[in-house]
TrEMBL record:
GO cellular component: protein-DNA complex
Family, as annotated: Belongs to the LysR transcriptional regulatory family.
Biological source species: Streptomyces sp. R21
Residues of the signal peptide: none
GO MF entry, a single one: DNA binding
Official protein name in the record: LysR substrate-binding domain-containing protein
Gene3D superfamilies: Periplasmic binding protein-like II (3.40.190.10), Winged helix-like DNA-binding domain superfamily/Winged helix DNA-binding domain (1.10.10.10)
Amino acid sequence: MLDVRRMQVLRAVVSSGSVTAAAGFLGYTPSAVSQQVAALEKEAGTALLERVGRGVRPTPAGLLLTEHADIIGRQVAETEAALADLLAGRTGRLAVRYFATAGVPLMAPAIARMRAEHPRVQVELKLGEADDPLPEVREGRADLALVVRPRGEEPAGVRLVHLLDDPYRAVLPVGHPLAGERVVDLAALADEPWVGSERAGSCLDAQLDACAAAGFSPGFVVESEDHITAQGFVAAGLGVSLIPRLGLGAPHPGVVVRAVRGPEPLRIIYAAVRETASPQPALRGLLDALRDAAHAGP
């Protein structure tokens, strides 16, 4: 196998026309240069240089290796530049997972800012409502994911960065007896028919835990896995619902939205990153942008 470093020494000799000149350029002794060329000739199995007066010139084999050394040198320089860009955050790729209600208020402004700061970083942005994205983060298949988790949870291999607490609101049909209240006691909804607005998981658990703390278990009569449909069911008079503030958007004209107390249900939203993730500037920038979007509020 040919030694790439020795090929670069040969290239210097051919370019300068002499062993002595190449030694001065490389910072080697002439003897060291001659030894490197001799070792390369042994690897190649043929002579690479021939003497011409006081200088040297390449044999056909030496010229061939010099041309390839030049190509390799350019490729190494390009690789070093690409690596420097990657380490500086100028290039690279981020795989990001999010859930729908966090898209507009959190992810959209954060991605826009990150792209402005790191325009050559590619972002693979994927909506993931059904599956838990933490395994993807833990295994390095995703660089960041927005998740809802109980406060204080510490999943193995993942670091959770708190972004915001998203309170649930009571969504009632227009004309409901409690529609005139500014704040609704959760226990006052105990005997109501309920419209489900969440699929099984951390978001639904946040509702059920709050209801349990208020002393009841909600009686779901309609199941819905998206907040817009749930509002439509409530507007039709099928029941009441709890919907997180970020999921309300523009409320349906047939419903009223009220704050809840006793207790106030909350979704705790985090950005999840791998515990051993390399300190990519673009990833740090995205985290900072998400924090700022969270603090800016809906």
